[in-house]
Design goal:
By secondary structure, the chain is of the alpha/beta class. Helix content is 46%, strand content 14%. It has ten helices and six strands. The chain starts with a strand and ends with a helix.
Length: 207
């Protein structure tokens, strides 16, 4: 029997981005002083607030701003994001639900990724997560932008795509994909496409 195609967004879908952010803030605090963590987080939120979309976030620019504020070299801060000694942070932030789901569906679906963000950081994050053995190599799509017609042409039309952003699911749905919205924020459900509140609810939507 031919397997189906199941693609996942990374951030806040199979990866706990907020947990990662807290970990990295602590490590930056180790360098800049734990008493400065509140200021570190303020600078981060100000930076994110200046972006049109959060996918434009780069550790490089964030660390440049921190370096300017605290009078240090930004390359000393960037190691927190890119240094191999901190890869364990990314591995610990993969949702355990993902592995449970894989065990349940591996015989029925090929797993892949359909995610977006600045390529340097997103690819580093993805590689550091060390989930490659669960994914088919030709189903890994990590792109600068994923919600436009050009990038959607790269994706198999039969793919089921799970994403935590309702607006992305709307684009996917309009382009003929089976989109499933992972809404962990509240109890809302979409009237336009399938909605789940945990990855463990996904199998029922695939039957």
């Amino acid at each position: 029997m031919k397997k189906g195609v199941l693609l996942f967004d990374i951030d806040r879908t199979i990866f706990d981005t907020d947990k990662m952010s807290a970990f990295l803030s602590e490590k930056l605090g180790d360098i800049l002083g734990r008493q400065n963590i509140t200021e570190i987080n303020r600078i981060k939120q100000d930076y994110i607030g200046s972006l049109e979309r959060d996918r434009e976030f780069t550790p490089d620019e964030f660390c440049r701003r921190l370096a300017k504020k605290f009078g240090v070299l930004d390359r000393g801060l960037l190691k927190v994001f890119y240094g191999s000694e901190f890869n364990y942070i990314y591995q610990e932030c993969v949702f355990s639900e993902f592995f449970e789901l894989y065990k349940e569906l591996e015989n029925k679906f090929n797993f892949g990724v359909y995610s977006e963000g600045t390529l340097k950081f997103q690819m580093h994050k993805f590689k550091s997560m060390q989930i490659g053995k669960y994914l088919k190599k030709d189903l890994i799509f990590v792109l600068p932008v994923k919600d436009n017609a050009k990038t959607l042409k790269l994706v198999p039309k039969e793919a089921v795509i799970v994403d935590d952003k309702e607006i992305v699911c709307e684009v996917l749905n309009k382009n003929g994909f089976h989109a499933i919205w992972l809404n962990k924020k509240d109890g809302r459900e979409s009237v336009k496409f399938d909605t789940i509140h945990s990855l463990l609810e996904l199998p029922d939507k695939l039957m």
